[in-house]
Predict the 3D structure of the following.
Amino acid sequence: MPLKTAQSLAWNLAKTLMTIMVIVRTGNGYAVMPWDEFDGNPASLVREYDPFS
């Protein structure tokens, strides 16, 4: 998905689910997932959305 869409989705999910969400760069754009499910390369992280900060 495009970066702008991923940013909007990540922030919305972080606030709704009250969990840390991250945006990661993939070969086809960007993906959003919860921090505790990310087990990939830390260099692929684009941004972290923490609803508690």
